[in-house]
């Protein structure tokens, strides 16, 4: 039996009126209207009985009704149904990894130096003896080499009869005569390599890398990390080195930290310095709460070495020491990092142990 | 090198009232670092680090000289005392012949000796024993201890021969170099064979009778019965001392001093002090004249230094007078040439370390005081030429991304054991090996990070879902006489399942706008046909290894924007029961290739061999309808027909 649009309208109106009289707006009532076998679906079936030409209008009417019904229930039911969340429930644990403390330190050091125009570089960890020692004013069998417990790579060394000559350090360059391969004992091999890369100053390099020495105890591991700064230009002097060290100390350890340089000796710098940073625990006084500071030696920490680049090293890097001067500094990432207040790492071997109980703490 | 200096002994050479703590503070700022002050035998003993170039400070007198200059600079009263020692003269009633000495000046710069007779074997007096103990030296008896005592006080090693033994071997000392394979025994009885080239003393028969400047040999050294002593000091060329000492690993105090160029001018005062003590403590008689062969007085070379150079290094202008005063206090002779422009500095003989202008700058700067120089950053140009082929920013982003996704960063040793090297995937003999490893677990330079990270996971057995990564170099040997290739790898190893590990890598690459990562059935990781790494299955572990240098060129800093589509897509899921021999990647690829309308095929569920794929159809030019999809769907099912058991 066909149905007209008017009849449909009446049914819709009846349903709407009935809806108005409904007081309870619960899920059950909603189902009576909008559920699978609810009033709306039953009514919607009549569309089959409508004339084809009127079907479109009928469809629109039904859609309007549906929207009306949905609005009616959405405004009311959902809010009443939501249960109050227990805010004291613990959070669901998330997997979080940890950046290794050495990475953290390296990133921090890099950021500090990049802000004042240093370029970070990377050079070989297995390098020619020439870059690691000879170009740094340390001829073969020089006693100064004893301080570096060097690992040698088991590889043949070509014979040649060119003797060392401090005046012509590039005469025995490995590109000409080959050489002996060593594991870099310090990041200072980057000095001449950076001079060779840039050919001409200005140079402001920060080289952070793995180093290797033949020693192992609570404060030494066979592999460790160093960072090395090198600045070469016209008119570079000791004041600039002091300025750079003070800047780093304050940025890395906090406001008020000072640096101090004292005489020392390295073959590749002249003058050479030992670098101390003032203790940030006792403010450089050596005393805390009337007692001797337990963290430092009399207010200062020895952190590393520095100096004005030796003229022979500039020469080895192809730079004229009559025109340019420079300074360099370098020290251990581990040492620098473990001096941070409250860190309390007493055995640096832990850093390379792969022990998650340690690494998770960072 | 460290040296121990008892404060009262120091005061024998230095006039000062400054207290030890103050001395420590001031001297450390401008000279050798006084690391500690010990209390030993009721007195203050300084522990001082002397740098290798300053062997002149390796004695009581040497330190006193430095301290005097530095204290004075700070306005503290301090003065180096004059060293007055009696000249040696032969006693009338004794006369013994000196040995016949044949020197070679190319090997030995000076040789000086005297014969002592009627040497009594007295115990070391308490005052001397106390100082020996304070400075970590053993106490024997006077005859032996005097030699160590005078070396410590004045800085030149010396040797007491048993005169009778020496005369019995022929009474001859020939300074020469050893050939290879000659035998000698040191005074402690250890036997050695020469490597050739060591400077030795020989007798007329070619027998080695001393290893000069290093250690005495048994055949001429003092023993309990010795009553006659030949007290001898010689100055062997430093490099030769070092060669012999290192070759035989005989690292005596004498060798460690003499290999660093001790001033031969110290020989005479040391001999005089020695003779004085033998006379006082052992009632010895001087039985010969002093033999002294010192043809070349070891003059130091004058160094012309521009005042401009000094001021350039310091960044401040010092008056010429200030500069000259400092240098003169340090014992240098200064010639003022060309007023206010150049000075010519002749260092004292005990300062052979002063060779070039920069050395002079150091002396002036340290005594003037580094702490007095201002501190400022450079105002010079900033270099803009960055190194190619490295990208530290990308490395940092990789690390941070993985850490944020729950992966733990590891630093493991580049040096590995034979076992670990053997697991690298390369034959053991194709690894670089250390010539002098310290421990067995660090012998080879690794060619893969995987074995090290597997070891880390195995070392943490309580962690059931461990996921770790490392960004580090591996070392591939190159041709002979070429440095190895150091290749930066990102390696991930985990106990989690493969899809999770791969998903993290895919998400990581999306950070760099790399979308089309493929991994083939053998584990090769490919991006647009180029291999960037590989996946390995290690029993219950998954390892993913990526070569950073291969990744860097593919990285983009930003995407290419595609306009937001106006047409809608159709999504449908399809579940296929795959044959066990079929690789899922191949199925996905096959489906994807069936029509350009297929925009994406994703594996969304798997149960046993049933795999559900979500397929997204899209046409940017029109809205798709079921009639468009129908034939494509048919095509898909046909294309995978030989891969499935049946479709559901």
Helix and strand topology:
The complex is a heterodimer of chains A (362) and B (648).
Chain A: H1 5-21, H2 27-34, H3 39-44, H4 55-74, H5 77-81, H6 101-114, E1 119-121, E2 126-128, H7 129-132, H8 174-177, E3 181-183, H9 189-198, E4 203-212, E5 223-233, H10 238-253, E6 259-266, E7 269-278, E8 287-288, E9 291-292, E10 300-309, H11 311-316, E11 325-332, H12 333-338, H13 356-359
Parallel strand pairs in A: 1-4
Antiparallel strand pairs in A: 2-3, 4-5, 5-11, 6-7, 7-10, 8-9, 10-11
Helix pairs in contact in A: 1-4
Chain B: E1 2-6, H1 7-11, E2 14-16, H2 20-30, E3 33-40, E4 43-49, H3 60-73, E5 78-80, E6 100-102, E7 108-117, H4 126-134, H5 142-154, E8 159-162, H6 163-168, E9 172-177, E10 180-185, E11 191-195, E12 199-202, E13 208-210, E14 229-236, H7 238-247, H8 253-258, H9 267-282, E15 285-286, E16 291-293, E17 303-306, H10 307-314, H11 320-329, E18 333-337, H12 338-341, E19 342-346, H13 357-368, H14 392-404, E20 408-409, E21 415-416, H15 418-422, E22 444-445, H16 450-458, E23 467-476, E24 485-494, H17 498-511, E25 517-519, E26 524-527, E27 530-538, E28 541-547, H18 548-551, E29 570-578, H19 584-592, E30 598-607, E31 610-617, H20 626-639, E32 644-647
Parallel strand pairs in B: 6-9, 20-23
Antiparallel strand pairs in B: 1-4, 2-5, 3-4, 7-14, 7-15, 7-16, 8-14, 9-12, 10-11, 12-13, 17-19, 18-19, 21-22, 23-24, 24-28, 25-26, 26-27, 27-28, 29-31, 29-32, 30-31
């Amino acid at each position: 039996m066909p149905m007209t649009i008017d009849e449909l309208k009446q049914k819709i109106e009846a349903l709407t009126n009935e809806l108005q009289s409904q007081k309870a707006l619960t899920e059950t009532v909603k189902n009576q209207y909008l559920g699978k076998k609810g009033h709306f679906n039953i009514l919607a079936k009549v569309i089959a009985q409508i004339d084809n030409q009127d079907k479109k209008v009928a469809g629109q009417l039904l859609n309007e009704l549906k929207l009306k019904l949905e609005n009616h229930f959405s405004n009311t039911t959902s809010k009443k149904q939501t249960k109050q969340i227990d805010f004291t429930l613990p959070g669901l644990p998330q997997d979080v990894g940890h950046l290794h403390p050495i990475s953290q330190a390296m990133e921090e050091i890099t950021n500090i130096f990049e802000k004042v125009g240093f370029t970070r570089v990377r050079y070989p960890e297995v390098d020619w003896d020439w870059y690691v020692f000879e170009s740094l004013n340390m001829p073969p069998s020089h006693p100064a080499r004893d301080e570096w417990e060097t690992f040698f790579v088991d590889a043949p060394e070509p014979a040649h009869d060119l003797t060392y000559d401090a005046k012509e350090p590039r005469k025995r360059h490995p590109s000409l005569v080959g050489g002996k391969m060593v594991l870099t004992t310090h990041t200072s091999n980057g000095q001449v390599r950076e001079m060779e890369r840039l050919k001409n100053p200005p140079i402001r390099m920060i080289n952070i890398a793995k180093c290797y020495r033949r020693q192992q105890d609570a404060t030494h591991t066979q592999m460790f990390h160093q960072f090395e700064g090198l600045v070469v230009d016209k008119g570079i002097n000791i004041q600039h080195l002091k300025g750079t060290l003070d800047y780093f100390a304050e940025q890395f350890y906090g406001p008020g930290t000072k640096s101090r340089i004292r005489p020392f000796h390295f073959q590749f710098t002249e003058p050479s310095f030992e670098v101390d940073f003032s203790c940030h625990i006792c403010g450089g006084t050596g005393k805390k709460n009337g007692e001797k500071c337990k963290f430092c030696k009399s207010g200062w920490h020895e952190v590393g070495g520095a100096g004005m680049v030796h003229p022979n090293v500039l020469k080895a890097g192809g730079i004229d020491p009559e025109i340019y001067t420079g300074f360099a500094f370098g020290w251990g990432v581990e040492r620098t990092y473990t001096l941070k207040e409250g860190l309390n790492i007493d055995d640096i071997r832990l850093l390379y142990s792969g022990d998650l109980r340690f690494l998770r703490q960072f | 090198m460290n040296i121990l200096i008892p404060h009262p002994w120091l005061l024998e050479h230095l006039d000062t009232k400054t207290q030890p703590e103050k001395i420590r503070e001031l001297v450390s700022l401008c000279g050798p670092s006084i690391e500690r002050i010990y209390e030993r035998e009721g007195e203050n003993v300084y522990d001082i680090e002397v740098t290798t170039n300053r062997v002149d400070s390796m004695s009581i007198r040497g330190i006193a000289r430095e301290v005097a200059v530095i204290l004075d600079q700070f306005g503290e009263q301090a003065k180096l005392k004059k060293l007055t020692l009696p000249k040696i003269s032969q006693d009338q009633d004794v006369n013994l012949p000196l040995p016949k000495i044949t020197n070679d000046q190319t090997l030995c710069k000076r040789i000086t000796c005297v014969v002592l007779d009627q040497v009594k074997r007295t115990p070391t007096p308490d005052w001397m024993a106390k100082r020996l103990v304070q400075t970590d030296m053993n106490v024997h008896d006077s005859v032996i201890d005097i030699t160590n005592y005078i070396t410590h006080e004045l800085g030149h090693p010396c040797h007491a021969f048993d005169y009778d033994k020496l005369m019995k071997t022929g009474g001859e000392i020939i300074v020469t170099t050893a050939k290879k394979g000659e035998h000698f025994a040191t005074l402690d009885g250890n036997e050695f064979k020469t490597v050739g080239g060591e400077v030795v003393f020989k007798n007329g028969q070619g027998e080695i009778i001393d290893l000069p400047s290093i250690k005495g040999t048994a055949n001429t050294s003092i023993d309990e019965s010795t009553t006659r002593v030949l007290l001898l000091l010689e100055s062997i060329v430093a490099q030769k001392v070092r060669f012999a000492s290192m070759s035989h690993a005989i690292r005596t105090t004498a060798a460690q001093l003499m290999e660093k160029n001790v001033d031969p001018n110290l020989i005479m005062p040391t001999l005089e002090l020695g003779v004085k003590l033998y006379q006082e403590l052992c009632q010895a008689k001087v039985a010969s004249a002093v033999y002294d062969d010192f043809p070349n007085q070891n003059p130091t070379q004058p160094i012309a230094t521009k005042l401009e150079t000094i001021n350039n290094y310091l960044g401040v202008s010092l008056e010429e007078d200030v500069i000259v005063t400092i240098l003169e206090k340090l014992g240098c002779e200064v010639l003022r040439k060309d007023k206010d422009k150049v000075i010519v500095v002749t260092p004292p003989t005990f300062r052979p370390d002063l060779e070039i202008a920069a050395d002079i700058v150091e002396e002036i700067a340290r005594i003037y005081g580094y702490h007095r120089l201002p501190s400022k950053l450079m105002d010079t140009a900033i270099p803009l030429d960055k190194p190619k082929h490295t990208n530290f920013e990308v490395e940092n982003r990789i690390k941070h991304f993985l850490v944020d996704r729950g992966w733990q960063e590891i630093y493991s040793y580049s040096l590995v054991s034979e076992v670990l090297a053997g697991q690298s995937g390369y034959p053991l003999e194709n690894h670089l090996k250390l010539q002098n490893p310290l421990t067995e677990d660090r012998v080879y330079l690794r060619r893969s990070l995987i074995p090290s990270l597997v070891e880390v996971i195995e070392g943490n057995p309580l962690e059931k879902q461990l996921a770790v990564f490392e960004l580090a170099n591996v070392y591939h040997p190159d041709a002979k006489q070429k440095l190895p290739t150091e290749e930066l790898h990102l390696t991930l190893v985990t106990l989690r399942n493969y899809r999770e590990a791969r998903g993290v890598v895919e998400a990581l690459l999306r950070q760099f706008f790399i979308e089309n990562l493929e991994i083939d059935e053998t584990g090769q990781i490919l991006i647009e046909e180029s291999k960037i790494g590989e996946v390995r299955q290690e029993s219950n572990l998954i390892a993913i290894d990526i070569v950073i240098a291969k990744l860097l060129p593919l990285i983009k800093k930003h995407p290419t924007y595609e306009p937001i589509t106006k047409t809608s897509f159709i999504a449908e899921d399809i579940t296929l029961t795959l044959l066990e021999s079929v690789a899922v990647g191949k199925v996905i690829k096959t489906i994807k290739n069936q029509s350009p309308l297929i925009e994406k095929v994703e594996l969304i569920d798997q149960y046993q061999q049933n795999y559900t794929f979500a397929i997204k159809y899209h046409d940017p030019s029109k809205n798709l309808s079921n009639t468009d999809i129908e034939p494509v769907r048919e095509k898909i099912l046909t294309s995978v027909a030989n891969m499935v058991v049946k479709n559901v």
